[in-house]
Amino acid sequence: MGEKWQNRVILHPRYTEKVILKMQYVKPGNFISVKIDNKYYYYLVLSNSAFFGCQWAYAFHKKSSELLTENEILVNYGKGFHALIDFIEERRANEIIKINTKIDIKAYLNESNLKARIDTYGGGHLWYIYSTDFNILKKQKKLKKYQYSFPIASGMKCIDSTKLINKEWNIDQVVKDEGCGQFPI
After folding, report:
1. Could you give the 3-state DSSP secondary structure of residue 145?
2. What percent of the residues of the chain are helix, what percent strand, and what percent coil, each to the nearest 5?
3. Sheet-wide strand order for 136-140
4. Are 179 and 78 in contact (CB under 8 A)?
5. Of the chain's two ends, which shows fewer C-beta atoms within 10 Å, N or C?
6. Rounded Cα distance, 14 and 12, in Å
7. Pairing state between β 114-119 and 39-51
8. Helix, strand, or coil here: 94?
């Protein structure tokens, strides 16, 4: 899969000749920004591909109309949330801005278990509790108080993460309605 996606030849809309675009790659320790709807959104990448192409990242609540520096975002840890984010569309479109490629991620790593709400056939749902390597530890009808702070073990597109950033969403806010997915988007 590496070479297949590494270089693409496309016809650029402003030019008549073909141009070669190299797909961007992001790695743990990359502090990146993506500009969507004239706003810059900020992420610290915490893993290589972890789950169906998604990468663990820390999505910062801070957004801006001008590109900010890492010091303006990372000060005092920065409010935000851990999430499995799929950056593939932004990588293919060459829309990721790498602000820094060597951030120490230790303070941002998640050491807790994970949670996922799975709707059951005929209505209702179960909460699955996973280890950080996605082994199912238990299934239960309700979350215990301490489990609300577990990150959600389900991926989302980068564009969906911006909706959660705009709401200043936190991982302890869970979807209550049946059939509405993992995130309040």
Report:
1. helix
2. 20, 40, 40
3. 114-119, 125-130, 136-140
4. no
5. N
6. 6
7. unpaired
8. coil
